[in-house]
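Can't paste images in this forum, so I'm doing it all in text. The chain is below; anyone willing to post the predicted C-alpha cells underneath?
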Amino acid sequence: MDLANTTWLYSSEGLRLPLEVKLVNGEATTDPGEFSTDYTLGEVVYGDVDGDGDEDAVARINQASPRDTEGLWYIWLADLLGAVQLKYPIAFSGRCAIFVEPPVISDGTIKLTEHVRVPGLDDKIPCSDPGTGLSKRTITITSEGAEIWPVQTQPAVAWGGICPGAKYNESSPGVTDLWAAPSTTAPVTATTSPDGGAMFELHDAPLLQREGWYLVGVKLAGMANEQGVTQLECAWAVK
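Text version of the structure:
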C-alpha cells in the first residue's frame, strides 16, 4: 500500500471522532480558503508490529490550520488486501506540547520516546525545542474478532492509545478491575483493590466512547517514568 496515496482516518488531538482524509502524493486540503486545513504525510517507520512475519508500518500524519499544528502516529498492519489502519493513534505531537522521536519497531513491539513540556519548569523553553519531561513506552496490539487495539506493555500494562489526561486533580482512592483495552480478554492493568492506587476522571474523548465500557485514568505503583515520577495511565473499566 502507498500511504501517500490512500485514505486515512484522522482524529484531531487523537481524541475526536475520525474524519476521512484522502492523501494524494502525500497531501490533502479540506475546506479550502481562510479556514483550510492541510494534511501531509510525515515519517514512516517499517517493521513487524504484530509478530506475524509481515512488514507493517507506524506512520505520522500532520495537520496544519490557521489555529495550530499537530501530528499523529498511527499503526498500519499488513493484511491480504494491502494494509489496515488502526483508528486509535498511539502518539501525539504538537507545537509547545510533545515531541515524539521516530518509533523503533522490534520483536513485535513499538518503542516510543516522547519529550513532554513540564508546566512551570519548561515555560521559558522556546516552542521549537522539546520539553524536559521524558516518557518511554512500549506498545503492542491485541485483538478480539475484527477489533484491534493498541496496548502498552511498559512501563506498565495500560491503554496504548493516547490518554486524554485527568479532568480534575481529585482522584478516587483504590482501583477496580481494569484492562488495557475494552475487552475482558485484554491484558489486565489492575484488579480491584481498596488501597492499590488511585483513579481519575478523564477529559471527554469521543473517539474513546464504547458501549459498556469507560476509560479512566489510573496511578499505580510501578507507573513511574524515566525520571521517577508516577505518571497517569489510562485503562478500561466495565460500566
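DSSP finds no helices and 20 strands in the chain. Residues 178 and 190 are 5 Å apart (CA to CA).
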